[in-house]
Structures are given as structure tokens and as C-alpha cells.
Amino acid sequence: MQPEQRFAAMVRWWRQRRGWSQLELAGRAGISQRHLSFLELERASPSRDMVIRLATALDLPLRQQNALLLAADFAAIWRETTLEAPELAQVRNALMYIMDQHEPFPAVAVDRHWNLLKANKGMTRLVEFLVGPVPPNAKINLADALVAPDVLRPFLVNWEEVVRYFIRSVEADAAADGTAETNELLERLLTYSDVRTALKTFATDVAAGPILPMHFLKDNVPLQLFTVIATLGTPQNITAQELRIESFFPMNDDTARTIRAWG
Q: pLDDT of 233-255, one tens digit each?
């Protein structure tokens, strides 16, 4: 649910979403509680610096910082570009270096809503093994591919366990960014069959290892993979901040040998 598109209402909405009192937010922002109260009641107008100070104190992503500035009648300061924009050339180079170095194991780059942006050859081979060739330039959402009943689910032996973790991560994203788009993604995923049932099921067995692998099985070929997700450390561009690099690692020697043989 989006806050009312007025500065005072947005600050109040984000403060309450963070679970903070006016006193706590004021302390984090280095201002008086009285000043914050006046801003939330629209008895005072914020300066541009005050908007940025409050956005920083609220730990808002760059996209939401722009929205707060616009609500206060200031220009947005953070740019959003495509990944192919000239200013992101070094980011693309780093991204491709990471994914190339990870061969023959799979790696992908996705945006904040799990739309596929880049994939290495290892990922292409894995997808082709599981579901067949993907049409060139096809728009792929990895969240839908994981959760929907007819893509990866038929080959994911521990789908219920994996989907519980994944849905919780999307819930965390929705709580962090507060946008209608992320909430719509969450609601879409929850409409797929068996998802709500899976969320109500809790594992009672003692964990067999430190991480939960994705256990695929097709044509009597088992693959057990876990993932590492990386983000850019100091982004100053919305696209860069929302970029995620997910690298897949084999959980055992048999999986490693199978994937290396494909390469």
C-alpha cells in the first residue's frame, strides 16, 4: 500500500513502517522532535537538505528518496538508467567478469523484481537441461519461473522448502521499498497453486547442513545447488542499487562433475 503522495504523509508513513516514534526518527536525523512534528503536521515546510536528511535517516532506497523529494516539490537527484547506459559501462564490465569467472557454473543478473537482465553460458545450459531452449530475447522473471507450477517446480524436489525461503525474501523486499510494484509481485506469487499451503508448513527436522540447496532432478540426473547473491557496495544510480548478481554453486562433487561435463 502506497502512502499518500504528500511529503508529510510519506514521512509519517515511512516512520510508522519502520516502527519508530517521532522521538526516535528525530534522534536519528539529528533534529528536534518538535521540528519533526511540525513537518509531519505540515506546519513547516522542509528544505531540500532536510528531505535528504530524513530520507537517509529512514534508510530509504534511492528510488524512494527521489519520491520523497518530488513530494516536497524538489527535483529528483538519483538517476535511473538501463543497464546498457554508457554511465554503467564499468558496472557491466564487472558484472560480466563475475559471471564469466563463474563458468561453467550458472550465474545471472536480475533487477529488484527478479527480471532477468544477464545470464552466463552456465545458466543457459542449466535452463536448457531442465526446461528446454528459451526463445531469444524472451522476457524471463525468475521469481515466476521458480514459484509457478509449470516451469522449474516439476524438477525441484524440495520446492516447498525453497519457495518458503524465497517468498519470505520477497516479503522483506516489499517491506523495505514500500512500492506497489513489489507488493504486486508478492501478491502474484501468492496466487500460484500450493504457495500459501507451503508457507503454512514448517520444517520440523533438524537441518542437515548450514544452507538449504535447491535439489533438481530430471531424467535421473540429480543436481544440488545453492546460491550466493551479491549487490554493488556503493551505488549512486537506481539501476545499480537494484541490481542483484546470483551465482549458483554445486553442493556436492556429483553436481560439479555434471555441470563441468556440460561445459
A: 999 999 999 999 999 999 999 99
**8-state DSSP, 46:** P
**Amino acid identity of 187?**
E
Closest alpha carbon to 163 in 128, 136, 201: 201
Q: What pTM was estimated for this model as a whole?
A: 0.89
Identify which of 93, 69, 71, 90 has the alpha carbon closest to the alpha carbon of residue 79.
69
**Answer CATH for 86-262 from 3.30.420.10, 3.40.50.720, 3.40.50.1820, 3.30.450.180:** 3.30.450.180
Q: Give the long-range contacts of residues 101-108, CB within 8 A, separation 24 or more.
A: 102/247, 103/263, 104/259, 104/260, 104/262, 104/263, 105/247, 105/248, 105/249, 105/250, 105/259, 106/225, 106/247, 106/248, 106/259, 107/245, 107/246, 107/247, 107/248, 108/142, 108/245, 108/246
Alpha-carbon distance of 187 to 98, in angstroms, equals 32
Burial class (CB in 10 A: 0-12, 13-18, 19+), 33: middle
Q: Give the residue extent of every domain in the chain.
A: 7-71, 86-262
Instruction: Give the model confidence (pLDDT) of 99-154 as tens digits.
Output: 999 999 999 999 999 999 999 999 999 999 999 998 888 899 999 999 999 999 99
Neighbouring residues of 184: CB distance < 8 A, sequence distance ≥ 6: none
What is the CATH code for 7-71?
1.10.260.40
Contact 214, 224 (CB under 8 A): yes
- DSSP β-ladder status, 214-218 and 116-119: unpaired
CA 261 to chain centroid, in Å, comes to: 31
